[in-house]
């Protein structure tokens, strides 16, 4: 699809002049949570915005979210180390957004993997600014090729989630310029992003929505950004300061700090009308680009490719990283008679992380379904969970819960007064949770009633999601109560990470009607709440289930063991507190591997975890959160599809090895005292060996690095040609990586280029890497200066696996 033509600025001026000041100011705050107010006088239709980084969700959030496409997580996309793959992902997301009526996609998230504990680690690309920048450029170009705006976020310093609304990131100029700003700069200057999002946090003493130095001085003036700067949701907290700093759009609406207050500021001369006009012009320019102005040609019809699901499956394969393989993989289905599929993530597969990026997928291919597709019906597959590490239960499903009034799948929800009087009632479909539930005048209690169809007798589990005083009523049993109170008044905390309590009750097989009474927490500033119900069937003891899994492993020809995390462990608005896998998963791996040495462990997680048993399984595959087609992608790799991924982040051998482990501000400050020494550069500087280095990943073939030719110099840039040969017996893909290392100042090497190549057996290919001059500069005394002194280029398979070294010519 061709690039959109520049907006007609004269036409935008005419539309701007047709608007009243009131209309202009009203446009600058969302009409609601996800759309802008249309302006008939300017011929402006309402613009619709949608999360997110794993696919457009639409203009809703919660249980009524319609099904959409769920792509592999951004960390998986970066693991492909391929700009064309990023472009294809962005294009497919853009086409889906167009079909959903979405004009602005709130992605990509380009903050860095500063700490492996970061809650949105899975939603960000990489620990390296260059890999993040190249992935960002490809993705944005792909999205915007469809006539949908991409939103580069969160500008800037939003690299952790703890106290994110208030912390002050203290980052020196060199670290900002060389490490954290390059992905944003590439998004603007090279990819031409149409929207940028200002983060919640402050940087160097000024909150980002009021940070004129960065929003106007850097983003708009130095980089020439001509798009819209939107606030993160509820990030704007002032009127004049944020308006004068360079923020253009406050979300969500219609309430907010601008509105009538901003109109008054303009009328009283505190905010010039020219500032308002610039903001409105930017929104009109965005509308022109996405086809939301009348009388202008839109981007045209968009058809989702018929093979979209197959492409998403291949994207998940491209991002998966084979960390170890002692020859077990790929499996030959013709030699297998019995396969044991074991582990918590084999049963509760995690296709995505948690938070605002959450998408309701149209379907999810489970690991069992994926294995059945590739192994056929003649291979017996036994399934055992083994351990139960999850902190929350799965939502009620349509087969288990029915509305006792209508008989339809779901729950009867009643709104009652303090004396029990029924004020209103409604049917709710089974879902993760229901939000928002409006606590109108007189509503003091919510009552959820549902008829459970229980398939087995035993100890059942019913969980209540949300805050307040909860009481569970089961026929013939004493009521059970629990209090769950929210600290603070941030609604995002309730929405993105709602607390959960699990009640346990005995019941026989058959139908039983249960009732949950909830007295909502009322000391909060918002008159809405959230409620959800979860359920789990009776099961044996943890020890008994673990023993059964080990016994099944011992009897199988091969074991596929799936461990990892979930959308509760890795989520927006909360950082992790440990790198250890939850529960008894480490013990499960140790015991299963001891029972059957032919075990392939698949880790289903979006960010690094400790793997103290990493040398025990015959094969170790990292699948990330692979999206809705993930089960098929994993099965494809296990049976021969080339695992295309290389690590975009370093995996520590021990928790204390992580260069940045604390994500907690001290006295409101988060000091980036490590400077640019994050990720692999910090491991090099401290001479610490990681478990798996940045850039690591195995192929199903082997490679010989034969020659490296470098031309150019530190001033003009470098052209690098690397000859490699496929020395194995099958076709494969290799990612050639180039790192620049100064020889005279002790600075650790830095990634400056990479390229992926494919070759058949015994075939030699040349990987061509171009290193632009900008990648060879450093920030000093307020400007970019060329590097000097002797340098060498180290070329290899990872940051720790150097195969060839070449001197870099000095500047002529």
Describe the structure.
There is one protein chain. Helices cover 23% and strands 26% of the residues. The protein has 812 residues and is an alpha/beta fold. The chain folds into 4 domains: 9-61 and 72-290, TIM Barrel (Alpha-Beta Barrel), CATH 3.20.20; 320-388 and 549-643, Rossmann fold, CATH 3.40.50; 401-536, Galactose-binding domain-like (Jelly Rolls, Sandwich); 701-808, Immunoglobulins (Immunoglobulin-like, Sandwich), CATH 2.60.40.10.
Strand content: 25-35%
Question: Roughly how many Å is the radius of gyration?
Answer: 27 Å
Number of domains: 4
What is the overall pLDDT average?
A: 95
Lay out the secondary structure.
Elements: H1 9-17, H2 21-27, E1 49-50, H3 74-79, H4 83-99, E2 104-105, H5 129-144, E3 149-155, E4 168-170, H6 173-180, H7 182-189, E5 195-198, E6 202-203, E7 206-207, H8 212-222, E8 228-231, H9 240-245, H10 259-267, H11 273-290, H12 308-319, E9 321-325, E10 338-342, H13 344-347, H14 367-375, E11 380-384, E12 401-402, E13 411-416, E14 422-428, E15 434-438, E16 445-454, E17 458-465, E18 468-473, E19 480-484, H15 491-496, E20 500-507, E21 510-519, E22 528-536, H16 542-555, E23 558-564, H17 585-595, E24 599-604, E25 619-622, H18 630-638, E26 669-671, H19 680-686, E27 703-713, E28 717-726, E29 732-742, E30 750-759, E31 764-771, E32 777-780, E33 783-786, E34 791-798, E35 801-808
Parallel strand pairs: 1-2, 2-3, 3-5, 4-6, 4-26, 5-8, 10-11, 10-23, 23-24, 24-25
Antiparallel strand pairs: 6-7, 9-25, 12-16, 13-14, 13-16, 15-22, 16-21, 17-20, 17-22, 18-19, 18-21, 27-28, 28-31, 29-30, 29-34, 32-33, 34-35
């Amino acid at each position: 699809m061709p690039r959109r033509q520049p907006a007609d600025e004269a036409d935008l001026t005419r539309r701007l002049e047709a608007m009243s000041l009131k209309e202009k100011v009203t446009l600058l705050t969302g009409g609601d949570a996800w759309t802008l107010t249309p302006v008939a006088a300017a011929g402006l239709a309402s613009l619709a915005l949608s999360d997110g980084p794993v696919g457009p969700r639409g203009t809703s959030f919660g249980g009524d979210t319609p099904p959409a496409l769920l792509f592999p997580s951004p960390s998986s996309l970066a693991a492909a180390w391929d700009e064309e793959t990023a472009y294809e992902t962005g294009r497919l997301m853009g086409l889906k957004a167009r079909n959903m009526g979405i004009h602005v996609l709130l992605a990509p998230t380009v903050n860095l993997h500063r700490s492996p504990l970061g809650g949105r680690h899975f939603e960000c690309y990489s620990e390296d600014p260059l890999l993040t920048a190249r992935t960002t450029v490809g993705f944005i170009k792909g999205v915007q090729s469809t006539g949908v705006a991409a939103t580069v976020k969160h500008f800037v310093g939003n690299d952790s989630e703890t106290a994110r609304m208030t912390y002050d990131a203290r980052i020196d100029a060199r670290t900002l310029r060389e490490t954290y700003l390059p992905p944003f700069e590439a998004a603007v200057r090279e990819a031409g992003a149409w929207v940028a999002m200002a983060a919640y946090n402050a940087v160097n003493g000024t909150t980002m929505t009021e940070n004129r130095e960065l929003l106007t001085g850097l983003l708009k003036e130095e980089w020439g950004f001509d798009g819209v700067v939107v606030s993160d949701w509820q990030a704007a907290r002032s009127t004049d300061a944020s308006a004068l700093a360079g923020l253009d759009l406050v979300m969500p609406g219609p309430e907010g700090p601008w509105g009538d207050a901003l109109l008054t500021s303009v009328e009283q001369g505190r905010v010039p009308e020219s500032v308002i006009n610039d903001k409105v012009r930017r929104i009109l320019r965005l509308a022109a680009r996405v086809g939301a102005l009348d009388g202008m040609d839109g981007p045209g019809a968009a058809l989702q490719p018929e093979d979209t699901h197959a492409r998403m499956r291949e994207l998940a394969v491209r991002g998966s990283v084979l960390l170890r393989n002692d020859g077990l993989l790929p499996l030959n289905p013709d030699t297998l008679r019995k396969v044991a599929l074991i582990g918590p993530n084999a049963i509760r597969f995690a296709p995505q992380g948690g938070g605002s990026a959450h998408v309701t997928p149209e379907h999810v291919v489970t690991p069992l379904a994926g294995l059945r597709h590739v192994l056929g019906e003649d291979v017996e597959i036994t399934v055992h969970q083994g351990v139960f590490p999850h902190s929350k239960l799965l939502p009620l499903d349509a087969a288990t819960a029915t509305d006792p009034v209508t008989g339809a799948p779901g729950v009867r929800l009643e709104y009652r007064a303090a004396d029990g009087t029924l004020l209103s009632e409604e049917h709710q479909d089974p879902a993760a949770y229901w939000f928002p539930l409006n606590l109108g005048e007189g509503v003091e209690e919510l009552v959820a009633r549902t008829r459970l169809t229980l398939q087995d007798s035993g100890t059942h589990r019913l969980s209540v999601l949300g805050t307040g005083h909860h009481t569970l009523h089961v026929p013939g049993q004493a009521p059970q109560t629990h209090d769950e109170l929210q600290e603070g008044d941030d609604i995002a905390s309730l929405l993105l990470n709602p607390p959960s309590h699990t009640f346990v009750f005995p019941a026989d097989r058959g139908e039983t009607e249960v009732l949950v009474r909830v007295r909502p927490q009322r000391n909060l500033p918002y008159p809405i709440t959230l409620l959800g119900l979860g359920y789990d069937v009776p099961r044996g003891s943890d020890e008994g289930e673990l023993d059964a899994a080990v016994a099944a492993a011992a009897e199988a020809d091969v074991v596929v063991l799936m461990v990892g995390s979930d959308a509760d462990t890795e989520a927006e608005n909360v950082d992790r507190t440990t790198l250890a896998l939850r529960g008894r998963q480490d013990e499960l791996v140790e015991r299963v591997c001891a029972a059957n040495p032919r075990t392939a462990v698949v880790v289903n997680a979006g960010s690094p975890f400790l793997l103290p048993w990493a040398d025990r399984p015959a094969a170790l595959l990292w699948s990330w959160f692979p999206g809705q087609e993930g089960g098929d992608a994993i099965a494809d790799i296990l049976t021969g599809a080339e695992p295309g991924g290389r690590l975009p982040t370093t995996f520590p051998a021990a928790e204390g090895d992580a260069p940045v482990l604390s994500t907690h501000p001290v006295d409101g400050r988060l000091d980036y005292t490590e400077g640019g020494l994050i990720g692999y550069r910090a491991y090099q500087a401290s001479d610490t060996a990681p478990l798996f280095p940045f850039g690591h990943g195995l192929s199903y073939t082997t490679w010989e690095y034969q020659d490296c030719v470098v031309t150019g110099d530190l001033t003009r840039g470098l052209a690098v040609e690397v000859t490699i040969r496929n020395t194995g017996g099958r076709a494969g893909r290799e990612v050639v990586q180039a790192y620049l290392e100064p020889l005279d100042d002790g600075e650790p090497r830095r990634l400056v280029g990479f390229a992926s190549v494919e070759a058949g057996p015994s075939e030699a290919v040349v990987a061509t890497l171009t290193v632009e001059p900008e990648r060879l500069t450093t920030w000093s005394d307020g400007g970019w200066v060329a590097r000097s002194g002797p340098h060498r280029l180290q070329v290899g398979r990872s940051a720790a696996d150097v195969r060839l070294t070449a001197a870099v010519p000095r500047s002529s």
